[in-house]
Design goal:
The chain is an alpha+beta fold and about 350 residues long. It contains nine helices and 20 strands. It has helices spanning about 50-55, 100-110, 115-125, 145-155, 175-190, 200-205, 225-230, 235-240, 335-340; strands spanning about 5-15, 25-35, 40, 65-70, 70-75, 85-90, 160-165, 195-200, 210-215, 220-225, 245-255, 255-260, 265, 275-280, 285-290, 300-310, 315-320, 325-330, 345-350, 355-360. The strands form four sheets. It has a six-stranded mixed β-sheet with strand order 6-7-8-3-9-10, sandwiched between helices. A five-stranded antiparallel β-sheet has the order 13-12-11-14-20. It has a five-stranded antiparallel β-sheet with strand order 15-19-16-17-18. A hairpin with a 2-residue loop joins strand 4 and strand 5 (about 70-75).
């Protein structure tokens, strides 16, 4: 097995002390990040993801635990002794310097020869597609171009691991989506490990080989985007990763649960009888039909269509049951619109395949 690029073992980070009131920002996490992997750390504000990134960078030190980069213990080393570089959301470019000078700054501080600096800077600028803009200053660049300068400045030092702390957060939606694809393509080209912190679920799903979901300092789940989205381990992960319907239920047998309306339905689970669970049903997996028109063989519940939201590329139907509200999402295509002729106020059936739900615990 290849040696991990980053190996975190039982890391805990506390701020403050017992007298002033210690706060545990990261709580006993263990995690391996592979060589050449695009790895995302995802979670809400205050979950510990940025603190974890700062510990890898050497900007914070662990209270307890081990942190290795390619097998070398670095938990107590300063940032300049670690083979990593960090790109921040603010970019932190020098406003009075040109693109070339910004990218070259770190190399010049290392007293590298002028010839090597020039070659490495040229390569980095070409890598991020800024050739021809070498003499511009930051205020002459767009937000996306400034982001590329920050990336070039980090990559020119040839780090073994590149750390990115919400680097796309300051960009508008369209540019952010474009940069997501560019950043992933760049990572594939350079081949080094990227560790990317974000609170944006779609961003993590789009870009990452694997995702770590964190909450309140704890590591809840690590997996590839499909695992995280389709097979969440608990209610928080299911609810945080995209939109979902969480249907309360109790386990009544092997692969069988009872939902709140008293109906027993199939659901893949081996949890003990009596365990309280939730069924995660993604809105795009829920089908909606006028009552009496739903296909046979599906699990179905009845309700009243209370709203239809137009999103451009999709339609979201909100259905009020007597015991909860469900969302069903369909693509805005002519065939899907004719499948669902329901209008607000109609009695409708929401249906799904048994395989379309995940059983999650609290």
């Amino acid at each position: 097995m290849n040696q991990p690029a980053v190996a975190i073992a039982n890391i805990t980070k506390r701020f403050g002390n017992a007298k002033s009131g210690a706060v545990t920002a990261v709580d006993d996490i263990t995690l391996d990040i592979g060589d050449g992997e695009f790895f995302a750390m995802l979670g809400p504000s205050g979950c510990g993801k940025t603190t974890t990134l700062r510990m890898i960078a050497g900007l914070d030190f662990p209270t307890t635990g081990s942190l290795k980069i390619f097998g070398d213990e670095v938990g107590t080393l300063p940032p300049n002794k670690r083979p990593v570089n960090t790109v921040f959301q603010s970019y932190a470019l020098f406003p009075h310097m040109s693109v070339v000078a910004n990218v070259a700054f770190g190399l010049k501080m290392q007293r590298i020869s002028k010839a090597e600096v020039a070659q490495r800077v040229k390569t980095a600028i070409e890598l991020v597609q800024l050739a021809g803009m070498e003499q511009r200053r930051p205020n002459q660049l767009s937000g996306g171009q400034q982001q590329r300068v920050a990336l070039a400045r980090a990559l020119v030092n040839q780090p073994k691991v590149l750390l990115l702390d919400e680097p796309l957060g300051a960009l508008d939606l369209k540019l952010r989506q474009e940069m997501q694809l560019e950043l992933k393509a760049l990572q594939r080209e350079v081949g080094i490990t990227f560790v990317f912190v974000t609170h944006d679920q779609e961003e993590a799903l789009t870009m990452s080989d694997r995702i770590a979901v964190m909450h309140e300092g704890k590591l809840l789940q690590v997996g590839n985007p499909e695992d995280i989205y389709e097979r969440p381990v608990n209610r928080f992960v299911a609810d945080f990763i995209g939109r979902t319907n969480l249907i309360d239920a109790n386990v009544v047998g092997l692969n069988e649960v009872c939902i709140a309306n008293g109906e027993r339905i199939p659901a893949t689970t081996s949890l003990p009888i009596g365990t309280r669970v939730a069924l995660s049903l993604r809105p795009e997996r829920a089908q909606i039909h006028l009552t009496g028109q739903a296909p046979q063989g599906l699990i179905s519940v009845e309700g009243n269509l209370s709203s239809i939201t137009y999103l451009g590329n999709a339609l979201v139907h909100t259905v009020d049951l007597s015991w909860m509200t469900l969302e069903a999402r369909s693509e805005n295509r002519s065939e899907s619109r004719t499948e669902t002729d329901a209008t607000i106020g109609d009695q409708v059936t929401v249906s799904w395949e048994p395989v379309d739900i995940s059983v999650v615990t609290d």
